Amino acid sequence: MRYLIVIVGLLAPCLLTAPAGAGMEGHGGVVNAVAFSPDGRLAASGSWDNSVAVWDLATGAPRFFLAGHALSVNDVAFSPDGTLVASASWDMTVRLFAPATGVLVRTFAGHREAVYSVAFSPDGARLLTASWDYTAKLWDVANGDATTTLAGHTANVMAARFSPDGDRVLTASYDGTLRLWDASTGVALIILSGHENSVNDAAFLPDGGRALSASTDKSVRLWDLATGRELARLDGHAAFVTCLAVAPDGTSALSGDGDGVLILWDLATGTPLRLLAGTDRPIWGVAISPDGRTALSGGSDRLVRHWDLATGREIDP
Questions:
Q1: Spatial contact of 232 and 3, defined as CB atoms under 8 Å apart
Q2: Distances from the Cα of 107 to the Cαs of 18, 70, 111, 139, 140, in angstroms?
Q3: Among 2.60.120.620, 3.40.50.300, 2.130.10.10, 3.40.190.10, what is the CATH number of 4-311?
């Protein structure tokens, strides 16, 4: 097994970039999640204030604050065609909104505990949710029906993601494992073990054969999904790693942690390309734009921040 270990504290003086700017304001609570629209012009965010915000990234101004959830919004996702936004909440539901109008389209109910993540299938026909009821579920977007329940984790499921072809699902759990599933049958294909604590987020690489995971054990890990083998361990965070996103070309990834540190990783070498000076408060959500040039972050400072990944500087509207 190959381990790529980086001590960020020693590299910080040369990698740390300019301090963060003011960020996009409007939420009245912690920002848990952020997402780009498919064209990169809009952003969505979910917050402890129970709302979903849709932002115009050209101006940094909110278009809507979408109400309806009874409790905190834990995750948000745009549909592949950009016509819908899905939001997952502590209130055990998922809601679909139209970002152009702010109109509620549909509510999905069926989980027995908080819904912690949501994702659309590549064709936009299915939703995938992860819940603290220890399961993940697949849903039909058109009628709101739950079609498949993925059961097997022994603790909260923190994240669930579709493979690039939509045929498989990857889940990350508080039980310290990841599981790969057949999206059609709901059968578990492989269990990925190695983290020493909760696995908080996961993402496929574009090749579909590898994935990244982020953990409370302060590491980001790269996995071979055919064998379940750990390919690399990216150590550099000094606090629990809460979230991650992979660039569309698969060459880099961004992770955020409980100290407010964002690390942009070179996935070929496992070394940091850049540290982003976000905040001294936890980062809970990150996203990379469809063109791979910018990123979003959200955290306990209640702000949505928009970053230029080439310079590490926050983008002013």
A1: yes
A2: 42, 12, 12, 11, 12
A3: 2.130.10.10
Read off the pLDDT of each residue in 249-269 and give the average, rounded to a whole number.
97
- Read out DSSP for 67-86? ---SS-EEEEEE-TTSS-EE
Q: Chain-centre distance of CA 156, in angstroms? A: 16
The overall average pLDDT reported for the chain is 93
CA-CA distance, 109 to 147, in Å (whole number)? 12
Task: Label residues 59-85 b or e (16+ Cβ within 10 Å = b).
Answer: ebebbbbbebbeebbbbbbbbeebebb
Rounded average pLDDT over 246-268: 97
d(CA 45, CA 40): 14
| Residue 71 scores a pLDDT above 80 | yes
Question: Rounded distance, CA 147 to CA 162, Å?
Answer: 15
Burial class (CB in 10 A: 0-12, 13-18, 19+), 220: buried
Q: What are the structural domain ranges in the chain? A: 4-311
Mean pLDDT, residues 159-177: 98
Q: Are 81 and 100 in contact (CB under 8 A)?
A: no
Answer whether 0.90 is exceeded by the pTM. yes
pLDDT of residue 2: 33
- β-partners of residue 173 are 157
